[in-house]
């Protein structure tokens, strides 16, 4: 937006209760209709978002005819042509590149209207705006291809990891059924674990027989 070239009688900003500065807006330099925008510096102590820095963010409010309601103030139209429902007031946040721009907005005189559409920054409306929105709705084929390729690479990787997990689970189940256990290499100098569960069972049965024999020898006392 840019200030209009009309002469003004006062260079003082208009500040209303609540700390809001009133800014006058008009769409183009030759527009007759004007609008008012209420803005003030965004200051919230609990603000943690990096998208709204406290020293460069402007909080703006656009007042509607019936805040908090959807009542129509204009004439009734045909059922084929329905006006946009009004949902009370609207708010927005404007983040400037530097804090000096924020101060300039707060001190802008009310009787100098800000122009939205200029030669340097044209704003499309009507059919031209619809055409622009329609064109922008299409995704660039190169960008779309990159998105698809990235998704498929991630899918293939997840698929390979799932197949590997299933293979390891099948091998583990097969080892358990055959009685084999996986041996892991321990620290240097330590003995490895037995390779076969059957050997452990055999040794356990031998130990049981040896213990039973010792008990029998202790009970047998011929003298």
Task: Summarize the topology.
Elements (H helix, E strand, L loop, with lengths): L1 E2 L10 E3 L3 E7 L8 E7 L15 E6 L27 E6 L3 H8 L7 E2 L10 H11 L4 H38 L18 H23 L4
Parallel strand pairs: 3-7
Antiparallel strand pairs: 1-7, 2-3, 3-4, 4-5, 5-6
Question: Would you summarize the structure shown here?
Answer:
With 223 residues, the protein is an alpha+beta fold. The protein is built from 4 helices and 7 strands.
Description:
There is one protein chain. The protein has 223 residues and is an alpha+beta fold. It is built from four helices and seven strands. The chain has helices spanning 99-106, 126-136, 141-178, 197-219; strands spanning 2-3, 14-16, 20-26, 35-41, 57-62, 90-95, 114-115. The protein is elongated, with a radius of gyration of 40 Å. The model is unreliable at 66-72 (pLDDT under 50). One of its GO terms (biological process) is rRNA processing. Residues 166-198 are annotated as: Disordered. This is Ribosomal RNA-processing protein 7 C-terminal domain-containing protein. It holds the Pfam family RRP7.
């Amino acid at each position: 937006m840019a200030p209009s070239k009309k002469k003004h009688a006062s260079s003082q900003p208009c500040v209303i209760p609540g700390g809001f500065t009133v800014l006058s807006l008009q769409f183009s330099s030759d527009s007759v209709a004007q609008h008012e925008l209420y803005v003030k510096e965004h200051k919230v102590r609990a603000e943690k978002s990096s998208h709204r820095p406290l020293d460069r963010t402007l909080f703006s409010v656009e007042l509607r005819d019936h805040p908090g309601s959807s009542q129509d103030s204009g004439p009734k139209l045909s059922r084929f042509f329905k006006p946009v429902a009004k949902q009370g007031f609207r708010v927005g946040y404007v983040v400037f590149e530097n804090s000096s721009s924020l101060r300039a907005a707060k001190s802008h005189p009310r009787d100098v209207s800000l122009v939205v559409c200029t030669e340097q920054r044209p704003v499309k409306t009507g059919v031209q705006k619809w055409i622009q929105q329609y064109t922008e709705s299409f995704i660039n084929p190169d960008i779309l291809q990159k998105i698809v390729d990235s998704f498929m690479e991630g899918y293939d990787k997840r698929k390979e990891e799932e197949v590997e997990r299933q293979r390891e689970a099948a091998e583990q189940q097969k080892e358990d059924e055959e009685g084999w256990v996986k041996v892991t290499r321990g620290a240097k100098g330590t003995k490895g674990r037995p390779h076969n569960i059957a050997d452990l069972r055999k040794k356990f049965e031998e130990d049981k027989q040896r213990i039973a024999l010792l008990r029998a020898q202790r009970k047998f006392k011929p003298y």
